[in-house]
Specification:
This protein is of the alpha+beta class. It folds into two domains: 6-162, no CATH class; 189-330. 45% of the residues lie in helices and 16% in strands. It is built from 16 helices and eight strands. The strands form two sheets. It has a five-stranded antiparallel sheet. Helix 1 (6-21) packs across helix 3, helix 3 (33-54) packs parallel to helix 8 (149-162) and helix 6 crosses helix 8 (149-162). The longest helix is centred in the N-terminal third of the chain and has 22 residues, at 33-54.
Length: 333
């Protein structure tokens, strides 16, 4: 494929994408569950096409993609209001990246922020709405906590751009389960711990649950397909409902975790400035999933890990002690 840059590349890749999937499907989809799933899959395919065009192997660099697409960038301290923002003015697009919240320009959080804003540019209806003035530039915070559909779509684009499925899945299947593997993957793709854990769960590499806490309490969770199919869906959402000595409660109590594994929290320190490792212990499904009784076949042994994310809270990663236990517990009798 011939290399292009700027508007010529943008027109070419959108034309090829629309030929494959249809213009109206990516531009406007009715908000049914099936359509939203299909739209999300198409956005992921679009992001991976962009990654393959600009970075056919190895690490993807969103700043280079922005420059090649004719988008200008500003890195600066803009307070606490946003991580990034895409603005259209005088026929051109510009990305603001807030170093007060994303640290230095090549940090995992900054890279995700740039990729997120590229999502607003490459997703047709996002870009057109900005270019037409139908919507004003809006600040984005890349914590995967937004309930706004456009923000969720830009997050999906960013994750797929930085961690294309073929590359990510191949490496993930060779990686250790749990946070040791997540940290290794985050290091390889230069991505945040949170976005890497979400990507891992979505790919259903192995059964797991990812629970995010901010300093106000429960924020969200992501379940692998295997976990969901085993009818482990609702989790406890109040720290007080968890065992007092659980890794999650210890992390939320600001206890200092031990250094863990060969990384000794290097990814966390680079990303958030002060992480030194994560907490880990054994637990059970009943301790985390309120609809699982102690005598339930689904009450298997889990490993619970919790890693502090500095100002952004705590991430809990749960996975069964034996990878096939959930499959066995979900099997018809």
């Amino acid at each position: 494929m011939a290399r292009m840059s700027g508007k010529n590349f943008d027109r070419d890749i959108r034309r090829r994408f629309q030929k494959r999937f249809g213009r109206t499907r990516i531009a406007r989809a009715s908000p049914t569950a099936d359509n939203l799933t299909a739209r999300g899959d198409e956005i992921a395919e679009l992001a991976e096409a962009v990654a393959e065009e600009h970075s056919p192997g190895g690490v993807v660099y969103p700043e280079a993609i922005a420059h090649a697409s004719g988008i200008t960038l500003s890195f600066g301290g803009y307070g606490e209001g946003f991580d990034g923002m895409l603005e259209h003015r005088s026929g051109r697009f510009h990305i603001f990246c807030n170093t007060d919240r994303v640290s230095f320009g090549d940090s995992p959080r900054a890279r995700f922020t740039l990729a997120h804003e590229l999502g607003h540019y490459y997703i047709d209806d996002h870009r057109r709405a900005l270019a037409s003035g139908a919507v004003a530039p809006h600040p984005s915070q890349c914590d995967s906590e937004s309930s706004v559909l456009a923000e969720q779509e830009a997050d999906r684009f960013a994750a797929s751009l930085l961690m294309p499925s073929g590359r990510f899945n191949a490496l993930a299947r060779r990686s250790a389960r749990g946070l040791a593997g997540i940290l290794a993957l985050a290091d390889a793709f230069k991505t945040s711990i949170t976005s890497t854990a979400i990507r891992y769960a979505a790919a259903d590499i192995s059964p797991c649950a990812v629970v995010k806490w901010n300093w106000k309490g429960y924020a969200w969770k992501r379940l692998s397909s295997t976990t969901f199919q085993a009818r482990l869906r609702r989790t406890f959402e109040t720290p007080a409902e968890l065992p007092e000595d659980s890794p999650t409660r210890r992390a939320l109590a600001h206890q200092k975790p031990p250094a863990c594994g060969p990384f000794d929290g290097a990814q966390g320190r680079r990303e958030h400035g002060r992480i030194g490792g994560y907490f880990e212990s054994g637990t059970t499904a009943a301790a985390w999933f309120p609809r699982v009784g102690h005598e339930d076949d689904r009450n298997v042994v889990f490993i619970e890990q919790a890693i502090p994310l500095g100002a952004y809270g705590v991430l809990t990663f749960l996975y069964p002690d034996e990878a096939d236990l959930l499959s066995k517990s979900a099997a018809p009798k």
